Amino acid sequence: MLIPYHKLVRDKIPSIIAQNGKIANTTILDDRRYTAALEKKLK
């Protein structure tokens, strides 16, 4: 079962998830998308 989480995460979080036998699909954001996601998180 997939559970989507649209969150900013630190670099090591996907590897911690993998250590628990699960798969984390991640996307590296470009500067514009990262700034928009960070602003959304801070509001």
What does this structure look like?
The protein has helices at residues 13-19, 31-42. The termini are far apart. Helices cover 44% and strands 0% of the residues. The protein has 43 residues and is an all-alpha fold.
**Overall 3D shape:** elongated
Which regions are unreliable across 5 or more consecutive residues at pLDDT < 50? none
Task: Look at the helices and sheets and give the structural class.
Answer: mainly alpha
Q: What about the largest sheet? A: none
Q: What's the alpha carbon Rg, rounded to whole Å?
A: 12 Å
> How much helical structure, as a percent, in the residues?
40-55%
**Total number of strands:** 0
Strand content of the residues, in percent? under 5%
Kindly report how far apart the N and C termini lie: 30 Å
- How would you spell out the order of helices and strands? HH
Number of helices: 2
- Rounded average pLDDT: 90
Helix and strand arrangement:
Blueprint: H1 13-19, H2 31-42
List keywords for this structure.
43 residues, mainly alpha
How is this structure best summarized?
With 43 residues, the protein is mainly α. Helices cover 44% and strands 0% of the residues.
